[in-house]
Design goal:
By secondary structure, the chain is of the alpha+beta class. The protein folds into 2 domains: 147 residues, 2-Layer Sandwich (Alpha-Beta Plaits); 155 residues, Alpha-Beta Plaits, CATH 3.30.70. The chain has 8 helices and 16 strands. Strands 1, 2, 3, 4, 5, 9, 10, 11, 14, 15 and 16 form an 11-stranded antiparallel sheet that branches. Strands 6-7-8 form a 3-stranded antiparallel sheet. It is elongated and about 70 Å long. It starts with a helix and ends in a 7-residue tail after the last helix.
């Protein structure tokens, strides 16, 4: 293991508050569970243009490094499952209504339609969405309420049998935008480090990595020279622009690629744990020159994940 004080910048990732819903999907087998997860989390990498940021916080009953738990948890119906989170920024004025639309669309169009799937609420909160009743209208007066697997819900007759989902779905405050940057002397080094980090972070319960494979090759900054865009490429950190930008470039000498991972989760502690695990997993990657994080001096959010603090390299300030 390299010296983390030398490899990791003493900086922070600037995250921001969200509200999120969390559901449990179960299926007959892993094949159909993964089909449903891939569909229900589709087009959800970034809220820049996606309606939400979504991903798997935990796999239940599956083997492998991405299971999210060293001790398998039981699902209500005893089948394999996946815990999925849907995040929207808290700074949206219509955040409650928007999250409800997100969950209504994704559950009805991607869980209801997927063979063998059942959908359970994971958050018991004072405020909630009556999604079960709304989705049950698909039953065209043949739907009915029932308690199954110890959970109150709605049953919708379908050509494949029946679809069961919870009556109510809760939501609560979360955190979005935790991040790490991996600076590589080669393209392969930056990507390998990011892949290792993504696997470790995804194995941390209560967090999700919304980008494809957990990795973002197009790290962005807020704002753009085009008035119609709210974000744009972070030119100062693009290795191919180093010569063009000259002194304005922030790319260290020898770096040819920078890959990023984005972490959303239940709270700051979950981001801290995932960040530390990700750094330690990536640190011994050959030709990895530096690990850092993106921040905007507090202009984007007020949740700071200090890299040296989460690694125990210095006490909390």
């Amino acid at each position: 293991m390299p010296d983390l004080r030398q490899l990791v910048d003493d900086t922070y990732a600037e995250a921001f508050r969200s509200i999120y819903g969390e559901i449990l999907l179960t299926a007959r087998d892993e094949k159909w569970l993964r089909h449903c997860v891939n569909a229900i989390t589709g087009n959800s990498s970034s809220t820049i243009l996606c309606d939400c940021e979504a991903g798997v916080a935990q796999w239940i009953g599956l083997d492998g490094p991405d299971s999210g738990s060293s001790t398998p948890l039981e699902t209500p119906d005893g089948r394999v499952g996946a815990v999925v989170q849907f995040h929207v920024p808290r700074f949206r004025k219509d955040r409650r209504e928007h999250l409800e639309k997100v969950m209504l669309a994704r559950i009805s169009q991607n869980a209801l339609t997927c063979p063998t799937i059942r959908c359970f609420n994971r958050l018991e909160t004072d405020d909630y969405f009556k999604l079960g009743r709304k989705i049950a209208f698909f039953g065209d007066h043949h739907q009915f309420r029932d308690t199954r697997f110890g959970k109150p819900g709605w049953v919708i007759p379908t050509l494949g049998g029946e679809f069961f989902l919870s009556r109510r779905f809760g939501f609560q405050d979360g955190v979005m935008g935790g991040n790490l940057w991996f600076f590589g002397a080669t393209d392969d080094a930056a990507l390998e480090a990011a892949e290792k980090a993504a696997i470790a972070a995804e194995a941390t319960p209560e967090t999700i990595l919304p980008f494809p494979g957990g990795v973002a090759a197009s790290g962005s900054k807020a704002g753009s020279s085009y008035k119609f865009l709210i974000a744009s490429t972070y030119a100062e950190y693009c290795p191919t622009l180093k010569a063009k930008l000259g002194a304005a470039s922030k790319v260290p000498d020898g770096v040819v690629s920078i890959q990023e991972i984005i972490i959303n989760g239940r709270d700051q502690n979950s981001l801290n744990v995932a960040t530390a695990a990700a750094i330690r997993a990536a640190a011994d990657t050959p030709n990895l020159l530096r690990i850092s994080a993106g921040n905007y001096g507090g202009r984007l959010g007020k949740t700071f994940v200090h890299l040296h603090e989460v690694l125990g390299l210095r006490s909390k300030t």
